[in-house]
Amino acid sequence: MKQVFAMIFGLLLSLSGPLAGVKPGQASAGEVLHILCTTFPIYQITRNLSQGRGAVQVDLLLPAQLGCPHDYALTPGDIQLLMRADVLVVNGQGLEEFLGAPIQKANPGLTHIDSSKGIEDVIQNSDEGGVRGAGHEPQGANPHFFASPRLVAGLARHIAGELSRIDPEGGAVYGANALAYAAKMAKLDQEVVALGKGLSNKRIITQHGVFDYLARDLGLEVVAVVEAHAGQEPSAAEMLAIIKTAKARQAGAIFSEPQYPAKVVQTIAKEAGITAASLDPVASGPANAGLDYYEVVMRRNLATIKSVLGAP
Q1: Does the pLDDT of residue 152 top 50, yes or no?
Q2: Which of 197, 218, 251, 297 is most deeply packed, by most CB within 10 A?
């Protein structure tokens, strides 16, 4: 399989020809700047930031409906996109483990923007307490910043700053868009904080660690996580441990995600006698999503949380 991939990769490289990366401050006047975003959340942020900048094309690397790419493997089509890109915007903090050597081969001059740079108060999984799936939550930084409107504002400001250095002529546009988008996220964050203050039960169980930042913003305690690794269902013994924790800690609800099957979550909810509901971390979405898709989905999440956890 590796030999076949290498042959395909070599053919794509020969067909595409040499590509020159873009260094900060050196975007060529009159040429289109091709920006490639790894994941749907980063793509949506960058789309908002680039509105009104005509010399920019923003594309998405991974399928829009994929969700968190914890176990993703690059395809030949992905390699082609990487070859054509001038700038690659990533989530960072280990979410894109599938990147690395293939990028260096496909486009060694590619300029990277790590959107997570400058994010403070990063949750370290190894420091988390409670029952985290089987107790083997992957160590290191939790990369799911996009589930928190407050952190999304920070991601947007950093991406805009980097794009302004790469494309100085568009700096005013990126800056203005960043301010407007951050203001929208601040308003959404105010709604999050207000809701959190009124919840009658603040103990929850989640499908995997994607909601840790939103839970923190809401003042919620995640007492258990169903899947230590996204997409990897727990064993029978692990499910029993989660059910025991749910009862002992009197969890208010267990939340699944639309990106993953909900059967195990529903089983745990039934056995523990708690409510099961679905929250969408906006890790994925429709390919033609509107620019306000994040706000629409997140406010739907807040309505679900309010109905399940007993806010007045």
Answers
A1: yes
A2: 251
